[in-house]
Amino acid sequence: MTKKELRQQIKQLKAMTPVAVREVEASMVFNTIKAMPVWQQAQHILCYWSLPDELPTHESVNQWLADGKDIYLPRVKGDDLEIVPYHGSQSLDDNNKFHIGEPVGEPVDASCLELIIVPAVALDGKRNRLGRGKGFYDRLLSTCDCPTIGVVCDFQLVDEVPVEPHDHPLDCIVTSDTVIADSEKQALFARL
After folding, report:
1. Distance between alpha carbon 17 and the CA centroid of its chain, in Å?
2. What does pTM read for this prediction?
């Protein structure tokens, strides 16, 4: 299956999955992540402000901020993602090319990040990620040296994601039913 075909298949499955189901799965996914040593040890965390068809993050991101974590969100600049501190939903602006809620403010260097939570269209058991096709996260992840976790609904975990040389595998993937981690980094992702 090509990337385009897989994106289309997942799009159809998303359309058939009620928002309430995705919200329940998101709660389970993020509770699993919060129980991991990598989460407990990280202070500076990059997440994403979810689009309507992505695993919902809004509630979790706001809770993490309230819990004292330093949360960052991506902002598209040209072909790359800038990393910008998140200070609450009032600090978001969707007046951009993709109409995505993006944080306003000065970007920071990605080297400050201690954990990156990555959205995906699909993930597979080898921790390969299929994104939307623009390569934003692949470019970002190629410059970062911190743990990465891909998150999706269960139906987005597929047998195989087509991989190209520029694609960047993740350290761990989490769905409501599954955790698959790099064998060399399993201790970071074990539930406490």
Report:
1. 19
2. 0.94
